[in-house]
Amino acid sequence: MLTADLGPGTWATFTTRAGGLSEDPYASLNLGAGVGDDPAAVARNRGRLAQAADAPVAFIRQVHGSEVFHWDAQAVPPLGEEPVADVVVSTTPGTAVAVLVADCVPVLLAGPGGVAAVHAGRKGVLADVVPTAVAALAEAEVPVTHAAIGPAICGRCYEVPDQLRSQAADQLPELWSTTSWGTPALDLAAGVRAQLGDAGITQIDHHPVCTLEDERFFSYRRSGVCGRFAGVARLS
Ligand SMILES: [Zn+2]
Fold it and tell me: How many CA atoms lie within 13 A of 139 on its CB side?
């Protein structure tokens, strides 16, 4: 696990593939339901994460949108029955929230009295899921002071069609990129950084590790069928 800095009163991490019970092609710490892995293995992997977090961990069913689930911590949503959302917020101390990724950008947010986990893939970035999450915390009276950006496919690897790059960069110029082999690409993390900057968030702990290049992480582009790793944030 990679330790992330979300400021005082928080605990945050980005998991890797290591430390779980799933077998190939999900080996080993697959935290994603609905990717074809044995649900019993996923449940035990989530249990290990909860132990590491020293807290119950709420996951969501992500759909590349910008819906927000405010988890008030009555009970952890059961495996496979998670609410549909791409942002999960908690304002309850001792509870953790998580998003699952395998190339998309996991973004964690925190401020006094609240944390959020955000699933920011190409569609989510273009749908303003990160500013939406900042606004959701503000509505909960949590001014976001810190953010962490986890491992994701990098701007030198994330090849897209030319027209898609043009359209995306029209909306958010920082997304424009070129692969290391000279074709059109998008730099999702750069887009997220720009959106965080526009929201006035300057304390950003960025882990610029490329999931496609670094086999410590799951990568959908590299593997096709694979597991999901998580970005996790907890309010102490
Ligand atoms: Zn890369």
Answer: 11
